[in-house]
Amino acid sequence: MTQDTPPEVSTRDALIEAGMALLAEGGPEALTLRRAAARAGVSHAAPAHHFKGLRGLQTAIAIRAFADFNRAMITHRDAAADTPFERLAGICDGYLAFVEGQEGLFHLMFTAAEVDRDDPDFRAGATRAYGLLRAGCAPFTGGADLVFEGAVWSAVHGYATLGFTRKRGQAGGENPPPFRALLRLIVPDRPDHLGPVSAK
Amino acid sequence: MTQDTPPEVSTRDALIEAGMALLAEGGPEALTLRRAAARAGVSHAAPAHHFKGLRGLQTAIAIRAFADFNRAMITHRDAAADTPFERLAGICDGYLAFVEGQEGLFHLMFTAAEVDRDDPDFRAGATRAYGLLRAGCAPFTGGADLVFEGAVWSAVHGYATLGFTRKRGQAGGENPPPFRALLRLIVPDRPDHLGPVSAK
DNA sequence: ATTCAAGCTTGACAGTGTAAAGCTTCGCCG
DNA sequence: CGGCGAAGCTTTACACTGTCAAGCTTGAAT
């Protein structure tokens, strides 16, 4: 088409976006190097020039997903009432909202085998996500408290992966409890100025 | 219920065990219908007579894994000191010990895409696991309390899937906190006879 | 003008899941 | 006793996957 400044996205970006679309439409099994290439309008071997195999494409997708993921947490946090609990709950809401809409991406981000977790960009995205959560926890702990952070992080992640975001959890058959109730259990309803919630 | 005197294991069992070995040795990617068949000493098409495709084999493996998983929780629980907290912590210890030793199986049991979660035997195993946890929670809640159970379940599951059982968590770079510390945060250190820990 | 590397294509290969067809073998019923 | 029918298994075949090797084009740098 036009040929002034590159108006068409780079092949690399086109492949990433095609892969994300495949993931959203057909789940992890539908994400295929050849299909992504076809959808991006290039030959089946083109991806090899941009990624280190399928693993590389999946890693690139996961990196982009972390950007969206972090944005979702920030958006929900900033839309919440300006209290420590509501801001932390907002972060978790963003976390869970992302999972609900993008299970394929979530699977790529947190389920180990198919992604290169040593990729520096991937680590940066994951570290940034943890930093957001940590910042949300800080008002309750007066700094970094691995126990408290670990409890909140585990709770929201477990809640998501156990399928509580869907109508019925995968283990029990009953309706799942709302996440805020779980969070209340970890975050004591008390003034914020009392210092760390878990001793040492 | 099964036939009494087949001295050599059935092909079906041989396939399941071959698959579990592959999973343990090479991770989820190494579990292949053809490889399992070869290791079991049958042709590559034999599995089709016992399972509904690869999905069926993976489901059968997950079902067997749940039996081991539940046994691990029971063993650790029964070896613990006879207090409500120690028994619940023991269940969680069993949970985490299983994950540490059998990440491939754990992945199959709890990561959705590759298994038929509607299989009745699979559901039975998962429900039994949840029942064990629920029983461990009961002394603190005076019965079934979805919020408390969900918090403990999410915490231990999140702790496991986030890689806290390894030296360093995948998100933060620091040493992970011990799980018991997280559990202490959810299970208040208080007499057991005060009734449910979460109101309503 | 030449070179050279990046980007892309075509072609090939081993490995995968799965379906179809044929072969054994054993239990059961006539 | 005879046959027969289904279960279990093998062989064959096919479409699809990831990956590699070789060639083609193109554009910028030397």
Walk me through the structure.
2 copies of one chain form a homodimer. With 200 residues, chain A is mainly alpha-helical. The first copy, chain A, folds into 2 domains: 1-50, Arc Repressor Mutant, subunit A; 61-190, Tetracycline Repressor, domain 2, CATH 1.10.357.10. Helix content of chain A is 62%, strand content 0%. Chain A is built from 8 helices and no strands. In chain A, helix 1 (11-26) packs across helix 2 and helix 3 (53-79) packs across helix 5. Chain A starts with 10 loop residues before the first helix and ends in a 14-residue tail after the last helix. At the A-B interface, helix 5, helix 6, helix 7 and helix 8 of A face helix 5, helix 6, helix 7 and helix 8 of B.
How many helical elements of chain A? 8
| Strand and helix order of chain A | HHHHHHHH
Terminal Cα span of chain A: 63 Å
What is the CATH homologous superfamily assignment of the largest domain in chain A?
A: Tetracycline Repressor, domain 2
Please state roughly what percent of the residues of chain A sit in beta strands, choosing from under 5%, 5-15%, 15-25%, 25-35%, 35-45% or over 45%. under 5%
Count the E strands of chain A: 0
At CATH level 3, the topology of the largest domain in chain A is: Tetracycline Repressor, domain 2
Structural class of chain A: mainly alpha
Helix amount of chain A, in percent? 55-70%
Contiguous uncertain segments of 5+ residues of chain A: 1-6, 168-172
For this entry, what is the oligomeric state of its chains? homodimer
Which pair has the most extensive contact?
A: A-B, 48 and 48 residues
Number of self-contained structural domains of chain A: 2
